Amino acid sequence: MAPFLNLTNLLIILIILIIIFRSFFLKNKIKYFSYTIVFLFLLISIFPIGNFGLNYLEKKYINQQKILDIDNIIVLAGSENLQSTEITKKLNLNGGSERLIASVKLANKFKNSKIYFLGGDGHLVKNSLNEINVATKFYEDVSFDINRIHFVNKTRNTYENLKEFKKIADNNKKNILITSAFHMPRSLYIAKNLDIKLIPYAVDYRSNNFSSIANFYQNFSVSGNLTSFDIFFREIVGILAIKLFY
Questions:
Q1: In principle, which of 24, 131, 155, 243 could form an S-S bond with 160, CB 3.0–4.6 Å?
Q2: Partners of 115 in beta bridges
Q3: Looking at the structure, do residues 168 and 184 belong to the same domain, yes or no?
């Protein structure tokens, strides 16, 4: 199911199927459908629709509310590159590495706080390393006190992460949530459904506020537009799924 949450994958598969069907049969019946699919693909490839979508998800968290004290720092996994870390035997992170960096920054500022790292491995075929293993390596590499970290393991996604945290959560304490800005709306919606009070601390902003269209197209990238839209599309589907099924 996961590959089809990537809209680019879905559109490319549909285009391939259209080419096959038009080559052998139903040529006239799917003509307008094929035009629509190609039009959508070109639209999200050429125009920064995904960037606007990400900006919509992130804009509420651009200005961080003032934090005077923290009891618990909750970090959602997602910045860990499992396969590269396993192969190279060195720490490898992806674009969301700010999640881990911010957790150390806040923990160093608030000396009595504790980090709760929520993760596992969402792959169907498990790696020998999971997100906890890679995160542990990060904290060890930066000489952070591992005794200040509680690892919540064996979870596959954000819902399972927060559901496990709920078992040990205390709403009377100040719990701050660190995750990517585009992922924050879905995470907070899940937390609200689970009755967990969290203060948002967004990092890893992906949208770009260009001062002009000319500046945007100076760095024009079809792959960048598709990637941005895929991230936005996945988050929207995730939010809808939570609203409908949980």
A1: 155
A2: 73, 149
A3: yes
Q: Backbone phi, then psi, for 140, in 5-degree steps? A: -70, -40
Residue 93, phi then psi, degrees to nearest 5: -120, 165
pLDDT in tens, 82-140: 889 999 999 999 989 999 999 999 999 999 999 999 998 766 666 778 999 999 999 99
pLDDT band at 32 (very low <50, low <70, confident <90, very high): confident
Q: Which residues pair with 93 in a beta bridge?
A: 80
Does 239 share its domain with 194? Answer: no
Q: Which of 201, 195, 208 is nearest to 74 (CA)?
A: 201
State the DSSP H helix or E strand holding residue 186, giving kind and residue range, or none if neither. helix 184-193
The whole-model pTM stands at: 0.89
Structural domain count, the chain: 2
Tell me the backbone φ, ψ of residue 2, rounded to 5 degrees: -55, -45
Are 77 and 123 spatial neighbours (Cβ–Cβ below 8 Å)? no
Q: Report the alpha-carbon distance of residue 128 to residue 91 in Å, rounded.
A: 15
- 120 with 39, same domain? no
CA nearest neighbour of 94 among 218, 180, 221, 169: 180
Report pLDDT for 156.
Answer: 85
Does the residue 209 lie in any domain? no
pLDDT at 235 exceeding the cut of 60: yes
Element (H, E) at 150: strand 149-155
Paired strand residues for 151: 117
Q: What is the rounded distance in angstroms from the CA atom of residue 189 to the CA atom of residue 198?
A: 10
Distance CA 155, CA 162 (A): 9
* CATH number of the structural domain spanning residue 185: 3.40.50.620
Range(s) of the domain holding residue 12: 2-59+214-245
